[in-house]
Design a protein that fits this description.
heterodimer; A: mainly alpha; elongated; B: mainly alpha; 5 helices; 62% helix
């Protein structure tokens, strides 16, 4: 299922570029939120 | 302030400055200013910020915070996340490059998504590196 979804993202160059960008954008925002909450809880 | 200009700002704007110098010479075609950044190239700078920040955190006897702040791990985690995501975007942009102009019917934001995300990732990595270098979080640990 996951592999099929990944293959779907790489069906063409434009789509792959956009998918990588979206995953990266969501990832950095999620990392920022998680690390900020973690920092505030452990300081 | 000098450290900020030399370490953070200069590596990011240097390609743009070089491109402006190229414009002084006869051109074989148009040289769009977005060209050095459109495929997430800013993330190569973010990779450097992340690696340098991690080095400062974990280098013994240096400017690191490792021995003084129990929550430094979260800052290191942010730098590691920025490093991984930067590598992904920089590699993805290199392998799947975009044209310098958006094709008809495609929104600019979607066409240059890689560029806009690379700006966000680079700013995040730069802020994290600044927090490490200037020990911005140390007094609150």
């Amino acid at each position: 299922m996951v592999l099929k979804w990944i293959k779907e993202q790489f069906k063409d160059a434009d789509h792959a570029n956009f998918s990588i960008s979206v995953i990266g954008g969501v990832g950095i925002i999620a990392a920022f939120c998680i690390c900020t909450v973690g920092y505030l809880l452990t300081r | 302030m000098g450290w900020f200009f030399i370490t953070i700002l200069l590596p990011l704007v240097a390609p743009l400055l070089a491109l402006l110098v190229f414009k002084l010479f006869p051109q074989v075609g148009p040289v769009p200013l977005i060209a050095p950044f459109k495929d997430g190239q800013l993330c190569w700078g973010a990779l450097g910020f992340s690696a340098s920040g991690l080095y400062e955190i974990f280098s013994p006897g240096g400017n690191g915070l490792a021995s003084t702040n129990a929550s430094t791990g979260w800052l290191a985690g942010m730098l590691i996340a920025a490093l991984v995501i930067s590598a992904m975007i920089a590699a993805g942009g290199s392998v799947f490059p975009k044209s310098t102009t958006a094709p008809p019917g495609v929104a600019t934001a979607k066409h240059f998504a890689c560029f806009f995300v690379s700006v966000v990732v680079t700013v995040s990595a730069a802020i994290s590196y600044l927090a490490v270098h200037y020990k911005l979080l140390e007094n609150h640990g």
